[in-house]
Amino acid sequence: MIEFKDIERYYDAGAVKSYVLRYASARIGEGEFVSIMGPSGAGKSTLLHILGMLDEPTAGEYWFLGEPVHKFNERRRTELYQQYIGFVFQAYHLIDDLTVYENLETPLLYKKVPSAERKSRIADLLDRFNMVAKKDLFPSQLSGGQQQLVGVARALIGRPKLILADEPTGNLQSPQAREIMDIFRQLNRDEGVTIIQVTHSDTNARYGSRILHLLDGKVERDEKI
Amino acid sequence: MLKTNLLIALRSLWKNKAITAINIVGLSLGMACFSLLMLHVNDEFSFDRFHVNKERIYRVYRHILPYNGKEASSDPYLPMPLGPAMQADFPDVLNYVRLCDWGEQYVRSARLLAKPRVLYADARFLTVLAFPLLYGDPQTALSDPNSVVLTEQAALDYFGEQNPTGKTLEIKVADVFEPFVVSGVVRNPPPNSSIRFDFLASFERHAASKYGKRGVNNWNRSAYFTLVELKPGSGLASDSARLQQFYNKYHPGETEEARSAGQWAGAGDPTNYRLQALTDWHTQPEIGGGAVAPVNPKYGWILLGLGGLVLLIACINFTTLSIGRSAGRAREVGVRKVIGARRGQLAAQFLTESLLLSGISMLLAFVLAKTFLPALNELTDKQLRFDFQLYPELGWMLTGLTLLTGLLAGIYPALVQSGFRPLEALRSKIRLSGSGLFTKSLVTFQFVLSVGLIACTLIMLRQLHFLQQKNPGFNKENVLIVDASDADTRRIYPLFKAALAANPAVEGVGASELSLGADAGWSRSGFEYEGQHKEVFEYFIDPDYMTVLNMDLLSGRPFDYAVSADTTQSVIINEAMMHDFGWTPASAPGQVLKGYSESGKKDPVVIGVVRDFNFLSLHKEVKPMMFHMFNGYQPYQFFVRLRPGDLSEGIAAIEKNWLAIEPDLPFRYHFLDDNLARFYKTEARWSTITGYAGGLAVMLAALGLFGLAALAAQKRTKEIGIRKVLGASVAGITRLLAGDFLRLVLLAIVLATPVAWYLMQLWLADFAYRIEISWWTFAVAGLMAIAIAFLTVSFQSIRAALADPVRSLRSE
To answer: DSSP letters of B605-628?
Structure first.
């Protein structure tokens, strides 16, 4: 599903190029549950952003479902992205001014999904995450775990093939973290959704089937579980 | 999508109440100001468009090319036989309507005696033009020479009822009240009609009157408007060849005469008839004529421009404030992009917000505009209303204004904010404070406008003050001008003078044929003096006139009742005429104005020179002028000098004298200084409008600055906290925060000064007598702007500087 070859990403820091990623390569198949691990500054988040098409590599190739993403313009990347990818953030990144329901609805509005279908999809997800009673609350009225549930639900609402999660439980207490990870595992196993997560936690990494260890901008070790 | 966008916009506006309030107040003031000016200008441009066949109706005028040293001129007052001749000679002239608009005439019924506007018109007036009758038959209402049609208002005033058809009233025709029978009632002419009347009478009746008779079949007596209705598709309006043929047919030999006299050397003919579209009547002041002074459309555009600038300042507030707080909304933009928003969708969302705001502001603006409309009406002498029936175009104009304002204010922030890159936005890496170059330029621009307008206002007010204070060369204080133009003045003037001599409130009485000041009229003669063409203004006065007005005689002697030649031959000239003729005060008396009189009459002899005085407005230099003593002319205007003190008693006493002598006519008077001040009505109006615009501009700019300063202080909370911990004083921090903005205002003053100076130089060039623009005007305008900016900015800055540093640092 995903193949990236010799991905390179640097930032201009004055005269010096400071490399975040260099010669990073890997291949990830459909239905995998991959964790990216590594020390701070190893380039985990940058890699995730590049995979999520929020960032561009300065060199290297990125193939997504057989398509050369590195050759696409922003518009085509957005199309691809809208269709196949859902993002979950450590800081949830819900829209404060919108209710839970509206937060879930917004991606569908951008995709111009008809009203009836929007309603049924949102109702399904709310039901599945036991959040029907909370649909008219604003994010600030929810606990962290509940907010992240909404975050995951929002990532799922577009029915993506790939979920990218950037330390999804970094801000959560362990019981709530477990809940989120259970959902990921279930999605992966029962629905075949490919999941790539960045994490610091071994426990969380064990939920997946494979760990990519990053060091100094390179995939240093590819560990199967 | 739209529904969601609206909902988000509403929540966002509600969440930032302070900024929203600033924006709504600003936009609604700007839009109210613009709507008012738009209403005014739209009214000017809507004149005479209500006539059903407007595109086929024309007013005929005479056009004279530059000729014999005079500039080109146009004259809508034409001979009486013109209309019938045009209909007879041109098959495409369907109808003609002649109008005799000689202004106000005395009309009396049992209920009222007053001086309304009486218009004598051909009977077709009521069918060709769109003045619908409420009672009576438009085909026949003006057929009978003794009939009269009243407006609704006149019917109520004169009869106290809506339909006085069949009743009689009396109109003063040539000094005698004559009976007329009411044959109909016409709807009041709309305010945007150039043709104005209270009474319509038959043109035939006028043609049969003492003055009218002189015009019948007379191509040399030009006193009437002629309207023609052309057949559809007629090209007569632009066919100057046919019109020239027509002109030459009825004015034979004119061109040849001018040519042989050496006055006209051009090809073709100097004079022709032309057609002016009825709808252009109000916007071609060079042709003139009529009850409503036509306006130069340029001023309409200038007014709209002023309104536009004020509105622009309000829009800029929205723009800079949105940009100023866009960093705070960056995360939202980032999230939306990550969950799939396209740039266009985000821009639409932001524009929804600005459009919603402009919509809300429009509602408020409409209320504001209605509130301030009476003030505008007073300023412009109009009775405008937000009347969607009278001005059907107002609806889309106001809608358009709302959309335009929303787009103008919102487009830049929408484009900037929707263009944020999602990752940077999510990481709060967007650096867009109020300090961006664009924001700075906008703020500077606002203050350039404000300072410029204030400086212009100050200069205009100083010039106005100068015009009103300047000594016109006579004593204008405490002089009452009694308008006796309807009376038999030859009979009553001596009686009146004798009566006032016994009146202790009166110092002296003089008389003149013409009044002095605005709307007084003038008369000028041209003659050949020793081979040179001379133009001289003429006033007919009695010997006391110069004494009453305290005019200075430089040489020679005043008029004298005892010298019989004074009434026929003697003239007193002014300095300007003396210079023009190459004389000195010593050499002028005794000179003969050879060539002035028609053959057989004696030429005038100069008996004295009067010091120059401004009988025209101060726009013009004093021109050559001479006084004659009454002989053939009537003393229509009585100049009464009152003793200083309580004038009202004096006026009451004079009124009593007047009524004792002329009980049939009301006592009508003006003050000389008011008459002179009215010369500058336009200037006074413009300085007031500029002043309002300037005040509003400053207020709006300050409002924006207030918001920006608040945002800046909010954004620099942490910096301020650290500085305070490090020992910075409140004054130091205030200086730090306020300094940024004050520098912009200073820059604005520097930029505004040359522009305002240049524009005012153009404006002042219209005046022969004018002030010098002095540097301190700009200093004052600048200081005002700085003071206002400083007050608004420092309020926010001091508040920020006083905040507890521990709290602001902890919150980070």
So the answer is: EEEEEEPP--SS-TTSPPPPEEEE
Average pLDDT over residues B524-541: 84
| Nearest CA distance, A225 vs chain B (angstrom) | 31
In this prediction, the residues of chain A whose per-residue pLDDT falls under 70 are none
Q: Which of A85, A108, A110 to mutate to test the interface with B (most CBs of B within 10 A)?
A: A110
Q: Is A66 a domain residue?
A: no
- Is the CB of B342 less than 8 angstroms away from the CB of A110? yes
Indicate whether B736 pLDDT > 50. Answer: yes
Q: How many domains does chain B fold into?
A: 3
Residue A89 and residue B426: Cβ atoms within 8 Å? yes
pLDDT at B435: 52
Which runs of E-coded beta strand occur in B51-132?
Answer: 57-64, 73-75, 78-79, 93-104, 107-108, 113-114, 117-121
CA distance A44 to chain B (A): 15
Residues 6+ apart with CB under 8 A from B741: B443, B705, B708, B709, B789, B793
Query: Which domain covers residue A173, as residue numbers?
Result: 31-56+73-224
Whether residue B525 sits in one domain with residue B450: no
Residue B272's beta-bridge partner residues? Answer: B63
A16 assigned to some structural domain: no
**B494 Cβ contact partners less than 8 Å away, ≥ 6 residues apart:** none
Write the pLDDT tens digit of every residue in B323-341: 888 877 888 888 888 888 8
How many domains does one find in chain A? 1
- Where in the sequence is the domain holding B136, given as residue range(s)? 54-283
Contact (CB, 8 A) for A32 and A6: no
Length of chain A: 225
Q: What is the pLDDT of residue B124?
A: 94
Percent of chain A that is helix, strand, coil (3-state, to 5) = 40, 30, 30
Q: Does some domain include residue B478?
A: no
Contact B277, B248 (CB under 8 A): no
Domain presence at residue B641: yes
Which chain A residues contact residue B7 at CB under 8 A? 102
d(CA B797, CA B387): 46
In a domain, A5, yes or no: no
State whether the Cα torsion A116-A120-A121-A122 is positive or negative: positive
CATH label of the domain that carries residue A100:
3.40.50.300
- Report whether B75 contacts B220 (CB < 8 A): no
B651 and B689: one domain? Answer: no
Beta-carbon separation of B423 and A107 below 8 A: no
Residues B614 and B707 in one domain: no
**ipTM score assigned to the predicted complex:** 0.89
Question: Can you tell me the distance from the alpha carbon of B151 to that of B434, in angstroms, rounded to the nearest whole number?
Answer: 61
